[in-house]
Amino acid sequence: MKISLLTVVIALAYRAFGTNDWTKACLGGSCSFDIEASPASMSGTIQISGSSSSISDITPAAGWQILDCSGSTNNQTVRLVCTDESLGCGHIFQNGAQDTIVRLPQGCGVGPFVRVANHSISDDQSIPTKVTSRVMKRDGTTPQVHALQIDDDFSQASGQHGNVSFEVHAQGDFRVANGPKQSKRQNGSGSTFEVVFIQPESVTPFDLNLTCPAADGTTQTQFMFGSVSLDRAQFNTTIDITSTGTMSPPNIETLSFSAPSDALIILQSNFEAGLQGSTDIGFDLGSETFPSFSIAGVLEISPVFSVSGSASVNAQLLTNFIPETAFDISITDLQFTYPSNEPPASVNIPAPGLSFDVLALPTAGSFAEFNIGALFEFVVGVSAFSQSVGLEFSYSFSSNMILDSTPTSEDDEQVCIEINDVSQLNLGNSNAFFDAFSSGNTETIFSGAGSLFSNCTTLALGPAPDVTHATRSTLQSRDGVSCPPVAALPETSISITS
Ligand SMILES: *[C@@H]1O[C@H](CO)[C@@H](O)[C@H](O)[C@H]1NC(C)=O
Ligand SMILES: *[C@@H]1O[C@H](CO)[C@@H](O)[C@H](O)[C@H]1NC(C)=O
Ligand SMILES: *[C@@H]1O[C@H](CO)[C@@H](O)[C@H](O)[C@H]1NC(C)=O
Ligand SMILES: *[C@@H]1O[C@H](CO)[C@@H](O)[C@H](O)[C@H]1NC(C)=O
Ligand SMILES: *[C@@H]1O[C@H](CO)[C@@H](O)[C@H](O)[C@H]1NC(C)=O
Ligand SMILES: *[C@@H]1O[C@H](CO)[C@@H](O)[C@H](O)[C@H]1NC(C)=O
Ligand SMILES: *[C@@H]1O[C@H](CO)[C@@H](O)[C@H](O)[C@H]1NC(C)=O
C-alpha cells in the first residue's frame, strides 16, 4: 500500500512541473503556469484560483488574438481582437474587465498573469492583413479592436472580483563543486543538476614581520602569519519552496523551505606566532548564485551559496607556535522543512577529521591562541509584491589552536597544546514577511563542540640570554603586534604530526 501511494505522489509531483497547456482556456476560476528547469531558471508552477469572473484568458485558446504586445514588460497597453467568440472571448467582461487577472499568451509580457488596469475600444482599429482573413465576418466587416491596459501591480486591484489566491511551488537541483569558476548543466540519471564551481580560495589574513632583538645584541625577523584555504567545498542540494497567498489583495500566507543537502568541506590553515599581540580579520572565500525563479509581479526566488571566513590571533611573549591543520568536515543527510519542522529536522555531522603538523619553541609563561572560522551560507532570497525575506541555512565551523606554557621551576616549563572545534547548523528567516513570518527567526538544528587534540609536555629551558640595554630599547610595535622580550628558549622544540 505504502509503495503504491508513494508512486502516486511522485507521479503527481512530476505532473505539477509538466508543460503548459495552451489549448485550454482558463475560464473556470483557476489557472496554472509551469516553468521548466533551464540554466537560468529553477522549475516550478503557480496555480491561481478565485471567483469565475476574477480570472480570465486572452490567449488564442479563449478566442483572442493579440495584435501588438511587448515581451519585455507586463506594464503596457495591448491591442487585441476576438477571432472566435465561441471559445469564450466574452468571459473577460463578466463583472467588468477591470481588475480581472488574465493569462497572457507566450511572448507577450514577462508573464504569466497580469491585471487588467483598464479596458477600452482602441483608437487604432487597424488589423494586420494576415489576421484580417481569419476574423472577417460574412458581411465583410471585421470585429472591434480592444485595448487592454495591463500591469502586474496587483495591489492596485479594487477587489471587485473577490480574492484571488495562489500556490507557488519551485524546485532546483544544485551542486557546488571545486574548480575554475563556471556554471554548467549536468544530466544525472533522470534529472538535471545545475552545477556551479567554487575556486579553491587561499587567503592570507595576516602576514606581519618585525625586526626583533635576539640574544647577545643580535636581531632576528619575527613573523605573525596566518593563511586559510578552502581546499574543497562540495555541496549538493535539492531546494523546494512552496508558498501560498493571495494575489488580490497581495499577501503571502505561508512560505515553506526545504533543502535536503550533503556537503564536504576541507579547510586548511597555516599559522605562525613569532611576535606577540592580537589581530582579528574577516574575509570572503567565495560565493555563487544559482538559477532563480520568477513569476513577475508575484514572487521571485534567488538562491545564493557563499563562504566567508575569519582568522584571529592572541599571543603573549614568544611561543614560536606554528600549527598547520586540515579539517575534513562532512555534513550528510540534512533534512528539514522550515518553518513547520514537520517532519523534524535531522542531520549527521561527525566530528571533523583533523590532520596537523605542530611546531613550537615557547619561552616560559608564553601563550598563543589562533582561531579560524568559516561560515557556509545558503540563502534563498524570496521577494513577493513589495517585501523580501531571506530563507537560509548556515553551517559555521571554528577551531582554536592554543599553546599555553606554565613555568614549573627555574629550569623547565610545562607546555600544553590543544586543538578544539565548535560547529553549528542553523535554519532561519531574516525578517518579518507578510503573514508568513511575524519576525526574523533562527533555529539551531545541530551544535557540536569537542577537543580534537590535546597534549602537555615538560621541556627543560636553556640558559638565560644576555639582554643588553640596546636591545631593550629597540622593541618595536606595529599593526597590533610587537616584539616579544628576549627570554630563555627550551632546549628541545615540540614537533607533533598526525
Ligand atoms: C506602468 O506604465 C504606466 C504608463 O506608462 C506608468 O504610468 C506606470 O508608472 C508604470 N508602472 C510601473 C510599475 O512601471
Ligand atoms: C480608462 O480608459 C478610459 C478610456 O481611455 C479613460 O477615459 C479612463 O480615464 C481610464 N481609466 C483609468 C482608471 O485609467
Ligand atoms: C480576502 O483577503 C483578505 C486579506 O487577506 C482577508 O482578510 C479576507 O478574509 C479574504 N476574503 C475572503 C472571502 O476570503
Ligand atoms: C541533458 O539534458 C538536456 C535537456 O534536458 C538534453 O538536451 C541533453 O541532450 C542531455 N545531455 C545528455 C548528455 O544526456
Ligand atoms: C616584512 O613585511 C614587509 C611589509 O610590512 C614586507 O615588505 C617584507 O617583505 C616582509 N619581510 C619578510 C622577510 O617577509
Ligand atoms: C555530490 O554529487 C556528486 C554527483 O552525484 C557526487 O559525486 C558527490 O560525492 C556528492 N557530494 C557530496 C558531498 O555528497
Ligand atoms: C605529547 O607529545 C609528545 C611529543 O610528541 C609525546 O612524546 C608525548 O607522549 C605526548 N604526551 C601525551 C600525554 O600524549
TrEMBL record:
Instruction: Answer yes or no on keyword Signal.
Output: yes
Tell me the keywords, alphabetical order.
Signal
The signal peptide here is 1-18
Q: Spell out the protein name for this chain.
A: Uncharacterized protein
